[in-house]
What we know:
Helix content: 40-55%
Number of helices: 4
Largest sheet: none
Strand content: under 5%
Distance between the termini: 16 Å
Amino acid sequence: xxxxxxxxxxxxxxxxxxxxxxxxxxxxxxxxxxxxxxxxxxxxxxxxxxxxxxxxxxxxxxxxxxxxxxxxxxxxxxxxxxxxxxxxxxx
Length: 91
């Protein structure tokens, strides 16, 4: 999540991290999971934070890596879509 927040703040506020953007994993929350499921990501057996199966974790991250852009960029789009769907209310 720290790296996500660095990119949310932007290069002007936290410089020097742009070169690692494409290597970052996608953090997963309810907004992201619900939106990703619409695009074919299999539903997880539990919340991401409770997941203890490394293979499922890697399958999920590999799904994000299979998208047309870096995983974190996909996560940003999915999260925003989920937030808009929920009227901007965080859960």
